[in-house]
């Protein structure tokens, strides 16, 4: 049972049928008539799911360490969030959803200050709210482009020329700027048009879609165990930094910003050292280029810090930090007032986020603070990593390149038959996900405890001994 909420979640996994079972198969057939089910993982009964456990249509109960692709912070049917959802404030936000840029609610500043901005990264005191992670990154890119062109013109007081306004309507320069966003190989930043041009994780995301001519640098491919390859990894990271600087100085479509994930998630759970990211911050500042940190998947406590970039000890904060997933809302934080466009309606859409989702995030923040869940996740992550280390020593071919030490529960390893590994996990009561070509990634919720880690590791050992 959960230590945080009495009488809430099951005692453990319970697998009654094959997965998918007969009810799930029948329901999927019906759903497929009106909705594409080819990416379906598991047809879920959310009314019966609780805490760390997800329940399928046939009543199978699985320990969920995938958590809706890292998006559930406090467990299914969390009582504190249910209470927040039933409030008059939430009802008002849902049924009177405002066009925030034009008609923000009277208490919008208070909602932001007591929620989203309460956990703003150090040095960033403003926010642009958005709908999803891709949207957050896209609008951050727009802010970067407008900032750079405003700086080139000589400041916000300088008006647009007639040539700029006319050429913009024809998608031509100078109105349509010749600038780019630099991203990294294996990166994932979303599936919309701008964000997709910075996504480099899998061809399936990008095939047939027109893309911008934007540069990509090599993300460090570290060798594990880290302590046995320190000098080699330092050289790998320096080579990546040298490539970034070369592209900033020489790429034919000049980058105005660099976007980076603290841990490349969809691309295979690729890590780099704090020194690498400090070097990246130094390079971007030296060349007058913005640094955007994509915390869509790493943010909100999963790495043992509220924001993963807090591990880096940066001398200067990022220019923008994007967020979504565990926040249950989205947007980007910023501090520099020059990142506000010089005129209204330049950074704008109808919804510009959702007050109801902002209220959910506020309730999430309150529970994280009340239960000290960031420190809890750091402790449990150390416990889980230690158990996985011992498992990797016992079965080195099945648990390769274990990574994520000291990064909370944001842990991964490589398995040579990864897809079969993930499918087999369900037979042992575990819902788990993958990334990249061979990575098995752990994305448990912030309420994941040592006893859940014991269940998980026991199941993982059963998987590899059952082939």
From TrEMBL:
Catalytic reaction annotation: 4-aminobutanoate + 2-oxoglutarate = succinate semialdehyde + L-glutamate
Pfam families in UniProt: Aminotran_3
UniProt EC number: 2.6.1.19
Signal peptide: none
GO biological process terms, semicolon-separated: gamma-aminobutyric acid catabolic process
Cofactor(s) of this protein: pyridoxal 5'-phosphate
Top-rank taxon, per record: Eukaryota
Region of interest called Disordered, as start-end residue ranges on this chain: 1-21
One GO cellular component term noted in the UniProt record for this chain: mitochondrion
Keyword Ribosomal protein: no
Keywords assigned: Aminotransferase, Pyridoxal phosphate, Transferase
Enzyme class at the top of the EC tree: transferase
Listed GO MF terms: 4-aminobutyrate:2-oxoglutarate transaminase activity; pyridoxal phosphate binding
Family: Belongs to the class-III pyridoxal-phosphate-dependent aminotransferase family.
Name under which the protein is recorded: 4-aminobutyrate aminotransferase
Gene source species: Thermothielavioides terrestris (strain ATCC 38088 / NRRL 8126)
């Amino acid at each position: 049972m959960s230590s945080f909420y009495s009488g809430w979640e099951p005692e453990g996994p319970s697998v009654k049928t094959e997965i998918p079972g007969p009810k799930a198969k029948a329901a999927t057939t019906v759903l497929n008539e009106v909705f594409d089910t080819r990416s379906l993982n598991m047809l879920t009964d959310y009314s019966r799911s609780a805490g760390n456990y997800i329940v399928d249509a046939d009543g199978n109960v699985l320990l969920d360490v995938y958590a809706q692709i890292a998006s559930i912070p406090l467990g299914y049917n969390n009582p504190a969030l249910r209470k927040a959802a039933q409030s008059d404030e939430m009802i008002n936000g849902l049924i009177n959803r405002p066009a925030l840029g034009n008609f923000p609610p009277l208490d919008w500043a208070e909602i932001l200050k007591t929620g989203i901005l309460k956990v703003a990264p150090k040095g960033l005191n403003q926010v642009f709210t958005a709908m999803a992670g891709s949207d957050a990154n896209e609008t951050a890119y727009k802010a970067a482009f407008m900032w750079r062109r405003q700086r080139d013109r000589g400041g916000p007081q300088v008006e647009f020329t007639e040539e700029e306004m006319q050429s913009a309507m024809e998608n031509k320069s100078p109105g349509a700027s010749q600038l780019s966003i630099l991203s990294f190989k294996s990166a994932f930043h979303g599936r919309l048009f701008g964000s997709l041009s910075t996504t480099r994780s899998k061809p399936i995301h990008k095939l047939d879609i027109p893309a911008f001519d934007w540069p990509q640098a090599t993300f460090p491919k570290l060798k594990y165990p880290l302590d046995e390859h320190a000098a080699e990894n330092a050289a790998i990271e320096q080579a990546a930094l040298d490539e970034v600087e070369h592209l900033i100085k020489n790429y034919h479509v000049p980058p105005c910003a660099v976007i980076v994930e603290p841990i490349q998630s969809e691309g295979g759970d690729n890590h780099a050292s704090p020194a690498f990211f400090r070097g990246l911050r130094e390079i971007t500042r030296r060349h007058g280029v913005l640094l955007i940190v994509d915390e869509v998947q790493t943010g909100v406590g999963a790495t043992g810090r509220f924001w993963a970039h807090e591990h880096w000890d940066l001398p200067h904060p990022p220019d923008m930090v994007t967020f979504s997933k565990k926040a249950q809302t989205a947007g980007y934080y910023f501090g520099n007032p020059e990142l506000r466009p010089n005129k209204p309606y330049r950074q704008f859409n109808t919804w510009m986020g959702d007050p109801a989702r902002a209220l959910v995030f506020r309730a999430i923040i309150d529970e994280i603070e009340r239960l000290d869940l960031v420190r809890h996740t750091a402790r449990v992550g150390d416990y889980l990593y230690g158990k996985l280390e011992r498992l990797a020593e016992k079965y080195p071919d099945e648990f390769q390149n274990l990574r994520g030490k000291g990064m909370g529960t944001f842990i991964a390893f490589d398995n040579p038959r990864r897809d079969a590994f993930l499918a087999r996990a369900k037979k042992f009561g575990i819902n788990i996900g993958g990334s990249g070509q061979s990575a098995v990634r752990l994305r448990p919720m912030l309420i994941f405890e040592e006893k859940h880690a014991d269940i998980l590791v026991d199941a993982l050992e059963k998987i590899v001994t059952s082939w």
